[in-house]
Amino acid sequence: MGRFTEETSEHSMFRSSVQGFIQKEVRPFFQGWEEQGFVSRELWEKAGDAGLLCPQVPEEYGGPGCTFKYNTMVIEEFTGEGFIGPVNNFSVHSDVCAGYLLSYGSEEQKRTWLPKMVSGETVCAIAMTEPGTGSDLQAVKTRARREGDSYIINGSKTFISNGQHADLVIVVARTGEEAGAAGVSLILVESTRRGFERGRNLDKIGHHSADTSELFFSDLEVPASNLLGSEGSGFGALMSELPQERLTIAVASIGAAQHAFDITRNYMEERTAFGKPILKFQANSHKMADLKADLAVGWAFVDQCIKQHELGELSPANASIAKLWCSELQGRLVDQCLQFFGGYGFMKEYEISRLFNDARVQRIYGGTSEIMRELISRSL
Fold first, then answer.
1. Considering 232, 260, 290, which residue would you say is the last residue of a domain?
2. What is the pLDDT of residues 142-194, one digit of tens each?
């Protein structure tokens, strides 16, 4: 793909290794994963062996100590091949969960979990959303009650990426009696704990190979040392880490949109009507020109945000703009591209139909487009 403006030889080598991994370990098995609703556990271990998981983790915690651009290159190469489902679950593990441990974990927590996350031995999830609580994280009802040297957790979560495979879950729970943000904390929960229950693997309209689950906690006891950061600091931690999550969603959206554009252009060059390729009709070529322009703008802004993030300068507003623009672009682009396929676009056997379904959730998770607009408006 190579969409970012600055590429070193190290970047190119890493991209090539990701591309090779996709061709060997993903493409031959992808359709089977789509049908069963989750990737094989072996994929996580193979990705760890290949250095695709948590590339930003420092060497002292078992990682390669790369910059965050390497994280985004993994996303870009997977989505550039049309495999947005699996890489979004990789991203939750590498780009979201690992970030919380790096920023707020104790030394013991980091040394215990990060090496296993890098290797793929431990799959991590973060449990924010509840049946009655989506983007409003101040309203979580899952409770973690302190009893001596332990927390007792009760509650439920839904739409949890990696829920079926997760060995470790970062649970957003209410530890205090204060209303709103003040009483929210983050707690590490091992899936082997008594009282931990996985619900069903949710049946989604897209991202079929990415497991998404309900999770239940019933009088689940963890040691107080499983607290991530300090008690009551959870909401602040969430707000500080969400810009990175939204940036990765923007990268996934622009990469998937680019792939949809590329396969559509190829189809339009081959498909004929009235004796000529449908790309040669001005009405069609002008619509594709608009989409190409939108993609160019999206790539440029995403690249700018990645640079800002590596410098520690990415603002919540810019992350929200990237997420809003790229996910909305992806939605309208795949809709238009499916239209160019005509009746074949409505057939499941054509990739564009899957890309159409996969695109829809990008405007929802990580903060809906409506929430993004609200956040951006605060910076006016």
1. 232
2. 999 999 999 999 999 999 999 999 999 999 999 988 777 788 999 999 999 99
Last residue within a domain, chosen from 122, 152, 183: 122
Q: Does the residue 3 lie in any domain?
A: no
List, for residues 57-98, the tens digit of each pLDDT value: 999 999 999 999 999 999 999 999 999 999 999 999 999 999
- Cα separation, 133 vs 140, in Å, equals 6
Taking a C-beta distance cutoff of 8 angstroms, is the pair 170, 234 a contact?
no
Residue 293 lies in a domain: yes
Same structural domain for residues 340 and 206?
Answer: no
Is-contact 92 162, C-beta < 8 A? yes
Q: What is the CATH number of the domain that holds 71?
A: 1.10.540.10
Q: State which residues form the domain around 31.
A: 9-122
Domain count, the chain: 3
- Does the pTM surpass 0.85? The reply is yes
3-state secondary structure of 302: helix
Q: Could you give the C-alpha distances from 246 to 139, 235, 251, 351, in angstroms and in order?
A: 21, 16, 9, 26
Residues 54 and 139 in one domain: no
Tokens of 40: 């094989």
Say yes or no: 244 and 354 in one domain. yes
Name residue 222's beta-bridge partners. 151
3-state DSSP assignment of residue 199: strand
| 137 and 225 fall within a common domain | yes
Beta strands 124-127; 168-174: pairing state: parallel
Catalytic residues: 245
Residues written for the chain: 380
Does 262 share its domain with 195?
no
The token duo for 207 is 């991202």
Q: CB–CB of 334/359 below 8 Å?
A: yes
User: 145 and 110 in one domain?
Assistant: no
d(CA 302, CA 294): 12
Q: Give the span between the Cα atoms of 342 and 353, in whole angstroms.
A: 11
Contact 198, 164 (CB under 8 A): yes
| Cα distance between residue 38 and residue 29, in whole Å | 11
**190: β partners:** 168
CA distance to 91, 142, 166, 169, per residue, from 192 (Å): 23, 19, 10, 11
Nearest to 176 by CA among 217, 233, 127, 219: 233
